[in-house]
Every structure is written in structure tokens, then in C-alpha cells.
Design brief:
This protein has 232 residues and is an alpha/beta fold. The protein is built from six helices and ten strands. α2 links the parallel β4 and β5.
């Protein structure tokens, strides 16, 4: 009987879910700065509703990034604290993979370029497939105009409001976020693939390693010379 906890605080949306066998207990709401104070009480509340203790979990999944620096640190720190205290391993889940999984489940998309708003006039992007073709890619940080969407791929994520007219055309566009429910669906496969880590080894995935750019870097991005785009 699968028993997992998952949560994501990488965007302005807070998503938490607990799976106990076939039963799902979930919360979604405002995140951002509130996540650091509301995440832990809500986790404990959902575990109580599910009739589980932390020590009974198979693993704790958390959104490792990319996303908000503060949100990633919050999720990782809470996951580490819970994992240490209960002796449970962690599953760091890529937020872009969770976006693709959400688009696959909700809209039936089998080829997805996941794209999240990275602020600073940039997006995070990676591509995933659910039809067996080997097209998964590493997460990239790039200007919206640099994102190339291969034929037959849908765009999915939260970057359309900010950059909609600057993003490449696609067969479809799906507004989705990296949800804890999507992470729960990914968790068994990640666990079976040996992707769990000890709490001490869990790290956020920032992609961008700083929060400010130099004048030269901003100019290079506008000229489209800084970062390579995904390819089919």
C-alpha cells in the first residue's frame, strides 16, 4: 500500500498531498511568503486526516526546483527536517517534470515543453514525452524568445500571462502548475528508479545561480546569444 507525502512551494501556489493506499488528501492555496509558516501545520493536518505518521511513509517528495529561491529553500528545509526526525528518505522532484505530468493527466498531452516563469525576463523550460520517445531534457534558463518548441509538442506551465506573445507557437497551451498530486503520481517510479536520497543529501535545483544579472548579461540575453534552446 503506497504511503507518500508530497509538497511544492516553488511558485506563488502552495500544494500539499498525502497518499494512503487509494486515498488522497490534498490542500492547495496561496503560497509565497506564507509557505514558511503554513506548510508544516498543513502537512501535519493532512497526515492526521490520512491516519498516517511520518515514520510510516515510504518517502517524502518535494519540489526541488527550478522556481522561487525562497520557495525551494523552504520545501527542501521542511522535507529535510521531517525526514531526519522520522527516518524517512526524500524524493526531490523536478518542478518542470511535475508540470509535464499535470498536463499529461489533465489534457492528455503526450509531448510537453514545460515552461515556468523565472522572473527577470526569463523562463525555465524542459521537454518531456509520455509516448516512449527519448526526448526528456535538462532544465534550461532562457529568454522567452529563445524557447524553441518542436513540432507536435504542447506548451504547459505558468509563463503565459507574463510572456504569452513572446513564446514560441505550439500545438496547444495548457496553464498548469507543479502540483503535489502530480508529484505523487511520479513518486513510485522515482522511488523504484533509486532516486530517493537521505535527508542530508537533498538539495534545491536553482538552475539560475544568482538573482541579478550584469548589464552585459542582460544585453546578451536580448541579443539571443546566451543560452542554447531545447531541441527535438
Amino acid at each position: 500500500m503506497p504511503k507518500f507525502l508530497a509538497f511544492d512551494t516553488s511558485t506563488e501556489h502552495l500544494s500539499i498531498a498525502v497518499q494512503h493506499g487509494d486515498a488522497l488528501f490534498a490542500h492547495s492555496g496561496a503560497g509565497g511568503a506564507q509557505s514558511s509558516t503554513t506548510l508544516l501545520p498543513l502537512v501535519l493536518q493532512l497526515l492526521g486526516e490520512a491516519g498516517l505518521t511520518l515514520a510510516e511513509l515510504d518517502a517524502i517528495a518535494f519540489g526541488r526546483g527550478p522556481g522561487s529561491f525562497t520557495g525551494l529553500r523552504t520545501a527542501c528545509a521542511v522535507a529535510q527536517g521531517l525526514g531526519f526526525g522520522a527516518g524517512v528518505r526524500l524524493l526531490p522532484v523536478d518542478t518542470l517534470q511535475a508540470v509535464a505530468e499535470a498536463a499529461h493527466r489533465r489534457f492528455g498531452a503526450t509531448r510537453v515543453v514545460a515552461v515556468l516563469d523565472a522572473r527577470m525576463d526569463q523562463v525555465y523550460a524542459a521537454q518531456y514525452t509520455f509516448d516512449g520517445s527519448p526526448a526528456d531534457s535538462e532544465a534550461l534558463l532562457l529568454a522567452p524568445e529563445q524557447l524553441v518548441v518542436p513540432g507536435g509538442f504542447a506548451l504547459a506551465g505558468n509563463a503565459f500571462t507574463a510572456y504569452g506573445d513572446r513564446l514560441s507557437a505550439a500545438t496547444a497551451r495548457h496553464v498548469v502548475l507543479p502540483t503535489a498530486e502530480a508529484m505523487l503520481r511520479l513518486a513510485p517510479g522515482l522511488l523504484a528508479a533509486g532516486r530517493s536520497v537521505a535527508p542530508a543529501d537533498a538539495l534545491p535545483l536553482y538552475v539560475r545561480d544568482k538573482v541579478a544579472q550584469t548589464t552585459d548579461e542582460r544585453a546578451a540575453l536580448k541579443a539571443g546569444t546566451a543560452i542554447a534552446t531545447p531541441s527535438a
